[in-house]
Fold this sequence. Notes:
This is Membrane-spanning 4-domains subfamily A member 4D-like. This protein has helices at 8-13, 32-37, 41-63, 75-95, 99-136, 141-179.
Amino acid sequence: MEDTESTARERTRGNDGNQEPETNTVLMSSKPLHRFISGDPKSLGIVVLIFGCAELLMGFQMAKDKLENSTKIYVPFWQGALFLICGNLSIYTGVHPSKRMVTVCLAMYVVSILGILLSLGIRIWSICYLLHLLWRYWSRTWAQREATQLLMVEVVLFISTFCVSVLLIFLSAKARLALKSTHTQVVVQHVQQAE
Length: 195
C-alpha cells in the first residue's frame, strides 16, 4: 500500500504527494518552523550522530591506555552522549517539527556547545602533555609509539569536535530563528486630522 502521508519537507516545498512542484523553492519561508526545516536538521543530525558514535568508540579504546589522556575525566563518554542526543533530537525534529521540539533542540545545542568548549580545553592540555611525553621518551621506542598513537587519536577527536561545534552553532542559529516570532513587526498608521 502506498504511503499517503506527506512529510514536513514536502509540505514546505508545496508537494502534497500528488504532483511535482514546479520550482524547488521553499514556500511560506516566513513561518518560524519552516526556517528550521530549511536548514535540513535531519541530515545534519545524522552527521552529529555519527561523530557521537566515533567519539564513544574511540573513548572505549583510550580508556584502556595507561597514559593520561582526555578519558581521565571521561570526556569522550559524556561528549559522545551529548552528540548522540543532539543528533537524535535533530533527526526527530526534522521529521516531526514542532515549536516544543525546536526549543528542546536549541537547549541541547547550547549545552553541547558549552561541553565542547570544556572538552577542547581538556584536549589541548592532553595534546600538550602527550607532546611533552614524546620529547621525554624519545629514546624508548615502545613508549614513543604508544604516546604517538594516543596523540594522533586526541588530535583526530579535537578536529572532529571542532567540526561538530560548527554544525551545532549553525543548527542553534537556525533553531533560534525558528523560535523568533514573526508577529513582532510594528504597524504605523498615519491618521490625518480634519480641520
